Input
Amino acid sequence: MRRAIALSLAAAVAGPAAAADVLHLYNWNNYITEATIRRFEARCGCRVKQDYYSDNEELLAKLEAGATGYDILVPSGNAVETLIRQAALKPLDRALLPHLGNLRAEYMDAWYDRGNRYSVPYAYSITLIGYNVDRIRALGLPADSWALIFEPRHLEKLKGRVTVLNSQRELLGAAMRYLGYSVQERDPARWEAAKRLILAAKPYWAAFSNSTYIKDLAIGNIWVAHGYSNDMFRAREDARAAARPFAIDFFTPKEGAVLGVDSMVLHKGGRRVDLAHRFIDFMLEGENAATLSNQIGAGNPNRAALPHIRPDIAANPHIFPGAAALARLEMVRDFDPRTRRALSRMWTEIKVR
Amino acid sequence: MNRPTDRAGIRARRAVSLPPLLFLLAFFALPALIMVGASFRHPGEFGGLAPLLAAGGAGDGGLTLEAYRFFVSDTVFVEIFARSFAVALATTLICLTLAYPLALLIARSPRRRRDVMVLLVILPFASNFLIRVYAWIMILGPLNLLYTPVAVIVGMVYVHLPFVILPLYTNLEKHDPVLLDAAQDLGASTWQRFWRVTFPLSLPGVFSGGALVFIPVLGMFAIPELLGGTGDILVGNLIKEQFLESRDWPFGSTLSIMLTFAVLAAAWAMTRLARGRRGAV
Output
């Protein structure tokens, strides 16, 4: 924020011509590196002003409340669908995106935007399990299944050392995959089964956590956490950098998991469609796309990025899933209002019981 | 209480009270009315509200009592209200107990020291609220108190303590020391001087400080989210979830209205209590 203010001051000082050349990017926290931003600024001779959100709901709520002036947003698939159906996006001009061909076919033409008229895949993450390698090995627990956060027989050895996401769809999704169903499941009987599974495991969990688990894993407070692959990557790097006497790693449960693909889209309230296209094309160049994986640990839909990605990251199947693993990953699709209300009640019951 | 009786005085009074009145109208009454309106609507498919006149007769247009019916359909919601009131009450009582001696100490200190002490009370506000809560994660973690109801209360008390100290201090500072001297001359012990002179005079400060804690605690969601365990959900979290995760504005509005009524009832009870006490003294 302070940086944003400094930049706008600099722009104001530089005069009206320079002040007009500002690209407004509304992005996830920690989802692009400073160096990449600076390289783009040098290339386009413009300024990038970034604002941040920490989940799709926050982004949608802010736009719904009338936020305007953002050229580019980076929402996940279900939020892209919502924004398209609200007519909140501008269509892309493919002629201005010569590097579009760098993207891998499996991440194109998704259900939320057939033909990619509005969205260009940016990066992805898998909702999976991060764990303290030494602790889990010492306890002889399996590091391959959702059983690690759901089965009381494992959890008995982990009491108070497990966190799960404070997200209705993510936790229900994990439970559904463990029970062998789809994350889109709406059958009340199967919801009931998921609720029983969650309630049986809940007494062993320390907390519902959406962000604190990164630090808790890295300092050793928590041994098992349900969370996003790029967060687990960060916890792993943090533990390494601090030379902790243990290692953090992460795995995609064999039953399958939630895949979150984030895409760049043009908001209708944006003023600089030209700069926005230049930015999107810039991020499609292999070298620039690779920074998302190298520094943030995000999965990369860009074929041309691969040669620039650190070999250990490129070879990690929990960041870059193979075809078989990818087939077991599911993207979350929004429920209708009635189902959302019913889920909210179930969630409240889970919290209170 | 010298009420201005001449016309100019009345006009001056109106001119002075107009800005706050307009402020309250624009930022309290109007949003509250919007909230009441929203609570009778249907939720929109992608969040927000469904249009009043539904196209194609999908049955989601017009007004409905569904959000209220949903509220009473399950005891969990009332349970969360009760739990939140218990947490707010505990936080308020602990804050008052901790703040009173400190406020008294500051009020009875020499002028120069007083300013420094007040500054120290306000100083934590210089750093961001979330950073201070994160600091508690590091303190409570090794004590094995993190992610427990105790951690929530500790966080709540910590954040709200200055809001009790300051009104109590402003009240206590204004007490005329002559009153205590008079009480002493009449043979009152230290304890009697406190209990029969200082404390009754400080009641307005106690009640305003108490209200400044009790009401915000009811709406707080960040502290239970960061410090609380798997069962620590308060009404603030529930309302936030409706607007963000569930994107159910009508139900979120219903919960907010219920909370407003509950707070008004509590405030009414408090004023009754305050008036009762003052009558007895």
